[in-house]
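User: Please predict the structure of the protein below. I'd like the answer in structure-token form so I can feed it into my own downstream comparison script.

Assistant: Understood. Taking the following sequence of 185 residues as input:
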Amino acid sequence: MQVAHTFNATEWIAQNAYGGIELSDEAREAVSSFTTMWNFFESTICDNRASIAAFERACERFEPDHTPPQTIETLKECLAFWKFRYRTPEGFGHRFDALYFRPNDRRNYVESVLEGRETDPKGNLLALMIIIYRLRNNLFHGIKTLEMLNDQVHNLINASRCLAAVMEAIPSHLLFTRQQIVANR
């Protein structure tokens, strides 16, 4: 059996990339957690094909009345975080613009949720998934420098937390139900 060599991405980046030594431990952890949670979310909720259409199908399975109250509360807290982050007294700020919505990403719908005009729980869930999708696309494909990730720590932590709540809220054969967790204790 061949022995796998270890590799430390943090050390490699620090030694080989401009800005690599500026990347904080918190940013590395936030990116790591987010990419892990996104991977699990996409395979669990989106059948490995994340898209707005996949999110809409997932929202059809969401039953707010059958979702644990702590999960609903987490989703509300995630939404509140992004309302605060993306809205200013004048409207939507540069952070919201930096999500770089594409034409079919339903920006107007997300705005209506963040403004509180759209209050349906399924609609709120859809908006949360779209925001996270934009974060994911910007992280994986967007223009960035390594030190810019330091400013994304709270955003990525909230996104990871929100992905966990979304997976708790939408039934899937890959996740334990609350009843299974309690029964296994």
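That's the full token string. The chain is about 60% helix and 0% strand.
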